[in-house]
Specification:
With 644 residues, this protein is an alpha/beta fold. It contains 22 helices and 18 strands. Residues 255-541 form the Sulfatase N-terminal domain.
Length: 644
Amino acid sequence: MKGKQLVRNITFLLQAKIDFILLVAIFAWKVPLFYRIVNMNLDGTVYAISLLVVASLLICRNAFPFAFRFAYVMLVDLVLSTLMFIDSIYHSYFHDVTSISLLRQIGQVNEISGSIWTLADGKYLLYFVDIPLLILLYRFKMKQMLSAHRGPVWKTASRIFAMAIVFLLVFGSTFNIERTLAKVPSLLDSRYSNKAVLQELGIYHYHLFDIYQYVNRALKNRKATPEEINDVKTWFAAENGKWQPGPLFGKAKGQNLIVIQEESLQAFVVNLKVNGQEVTPNLNKLVREGVYYPNYYDQTYHGRTSDGEFTSLVSLYPSSVPGSIYFNFVENEFDSLPKALKREGYTTFSAHAYAGSFWNRAVMHRKLGFEQSMFMESLEDGEKVGWGLSDRDFFKQMNEKLKELPQPFFAFLISLSNHHPFNEVPAAYKTLQLGELEGTMMGDYLHSVHYADQALGEFIESLKKSGLYDSSVLAVYGDHDAGLPDAELARIGIRPQYDKQYDKVPLVIYSSALGKKNGTVDEQVAGHLDLTPSLLYLLGVPQEGHYFMGQRLFDVPSGSNKQVVFRDGSYVTQNRVFLVQNGLWEEGQYLDRTSGKTVDGQGAQEATLAAQNRLRISDLILESNLIPALQNGTAAVTDRNPPQ
């Protein structure tokens, strides 16, 4: 009889917890699925703790009357599954996972939804496979579950089970956090990438940690300590102390400045031919006329296009805070290219063929020092290509606008047509014969960038006719890479040997004042942060009194051991590339930049610490809004060695 009673009690418990058992079992399958999709290894401890989070949330269903139990369980399932879904889509484009900070950009969802859904692989729907099963379970097993729920052994067993789950979760979470801090002490503070934190904490603990950090930042306004301010001032004093003018300093003084930020323009298209056809004939022509930098690296992060603008105009690194600086630090004051030129008597103007609210540009461009800006709302209607007004019509309007601007002027023009997913170019403009590439993502990109190149070429010709071409410094660069998967790059014979190898965007600078320097290819490594110091150098604006972290590209002192640093702590030098894993130099890959082969790590630690310090200095400036204090000289520099 006792045996039968035991079986009956176990049966009652299983019936009462069948929804719990089903969902934990399904999440035991979903969690590894998620890690495979985002190409990450799943640690056994992280796996167990992730399932304990699921179990703990499901246990809480007992706090609700049985009639509300289904709604609660369904909500938990949908929230946890949707997190995986969103992270997977975000990862497919940004190669990272999302953050609550990105909710500030929720207004952008409608605009980018077309681009997002091209990235949504059908397998992502597997995250929701249990929803219909759950509905069927509650539809047909409600009576048995309710009966068991009221069984004699329910209360005692449930309490013991819940206490055990909570204990294991608390113990396991504490153990995992301590293990993570022992393994990677700087990971949670420096947050080199969201993915690295998720790798160590697990998907659900990562998002809880992310929420904690977000709330903590909101409640505690970050203020740099006197020692940190001193570090920043000392670092800039050391860097600016190295600055000496060379032959090209001020060579273009008094000329206008026209900077064109080209959407998704990646360096591999320069001089690329497909079936004998030049993909970017006009850009290639500009490369032959100006100074071309083929090793100009994309230094953007979560903010993508807005990061392309920020790094280029402000010469600071993207923030470690997920999301766009244009949203997260809108209250800050910045040193910038437009502000520097404004002080030199320049008229400052910016324009983009999309809404001024997108990326918060209408606010931020004024903060950066643009006296006048034109966005979609103030441009004339015209042909639509991709997201909005075609580059061709945009540049036509800009040609007329530039003629009206008081000189000298600085015009910052942002193109739009060559935007992901690259498949909205009208058939009439698809003039390339691509053969087998037709219909592929790479084929779409080549058609799109070819159209953008035609529009750029027409604009340059109009500048030549108006005389602005030879009375201006013209800089053209890509805002960020195109986000093309390796499989698409392989279609045209590009097979990256290591990460970052092809993460380059073109930069071309032309000025009639450069003389024989024009028509040359400069192989030095560089990145977005170097644009502002380089342009100011040509225009004769000294570095003293400015807080730009990039380095000039002209008259570079011999023996300069330059680093191009990325937000995750990786960096490249002229001969080496260092790929950081989880912020630890010991676990990084030290490679020959040309061959991609692993090389001796001698000097890697010192160089990596210097790279991380660059990021720290930039973060201090951003998170503590230090530019006003630095410019006003409210913190004295003590006599100490600059931080390495």
